[in-house]
Design a protein that fits this description.
Blueprint: H1 2-57, H2 62-77, H3 81-101, H4 105-109, H5 111-146, H6 150-156, H7 169-172
Length: 179
C-alpha cells in the first residue's frame, strides 16, 4: 500500500512540476511580448516627430510620409497574428523613409532629424533584440509543450504553442528609392 501511495505522490508531484514549468514559460512569453510592446510604443511616439521634420525638408515626398503614417496607424490598431505583419510593414516603410532622406542634404544636416533618426535606430535595435528574446522564450515553451510526457500536461490544461515573431519577405528586402 505504501508503494502505491508513493507512486501516486511521485506522479502527482511530477504533474505539478511540469504544470508549473509550463505556466512559468507561458508567463515568460507574455513578458517578452510586453517588452516588444514597450519598444513599439516608443517607436510609435517617435514617428510623428520624424514625419514632421521630414515634411518640412521634403514637401514633395507626401506619398512616402503618408505611407509611414498609415503603417503606424495599422500597427497600433493590429492585434494577434496580424500585429507582427503590421509591424513588419511599418519597419519596411521606415526603411524607405530613411533611404529617401539620403537625397536631401538639408534634412541630413538637420539636428532634430538626426536625433530622431538616432532614437529610431536605437529603438529598432531594441525591437530586434526583444523579438529575438521573445522567439527564444516561445521556442522553449513550444518545445516543452511538444515533448513527451509534458505534452500530456499541456493538453490537460489547454496550454497551446505560441507563434514565433517572423519577418516577412518585404522586410528582408532592401528598400528601393524611386523618383
Amino acid at each position: 500500500m505504501w508503494v502505491t501511495i508513493a507512486v501516486i505522490a511521485v506522479v502527482l508531484l511530477y504533474f505539478i512540476l511540469v504544470y508549473n514549468g509550463l505556466v512559468s514559460r507561458r508567463n515568460q512569453v507574455r513578458e517578452a511580448w510586453s517588452t516588444i510592446d514597450t519598444q513599439l510604443k516608443r517607436r510609435y511616439d517617435l514617428i510623428p516627430n520624424l514625419i514632421e521634420t521630414v515634411r518640412g525638408a521634403a514637401k514633395h515626398e507626401r506619398e512616402t510620409l503618408e505611407s509611414v503614417t498609415r503603417a503606424r496607424d495599422a500597427a497600433m490598431a493590429a492585434n494577434g497574428a496580424d500585429r507582427a505583419d503590421a509591424e513588419n510593414k511599418l519597419t519596411e516603410t521606415l526603411k524607405n523613409l530613411f533611404a529617401i532622406s539620403e537625397n536631401y542634404p538639408t534634412l541630413r544636416a538637420n539636428e532634430n532629424f538626426l536625433e530622431l533618426q538616432r532614437e529610431l535606430t536605437d529603438t529598432e535595435t531594441k525591437i530586434q533584440a526583444a523579438r529575438q528574446f521573445y522567439n527564444n522564450v516561445v521556442m522553449g515553451l513550444n518545445t516543452q509543450i511538444e515533448q513527451f510526457p509534458s505534452n500530456l500536461v499541456a493538453r490537460m490544461f489547454n496550454i497551446t504553442p505560441e507563434k514565433m515573431f517572423e519577418m516577412d519577405a518585404a522586410e528582408k528586402a532592401a528598400p528601393r528609392v524611386k523618383f
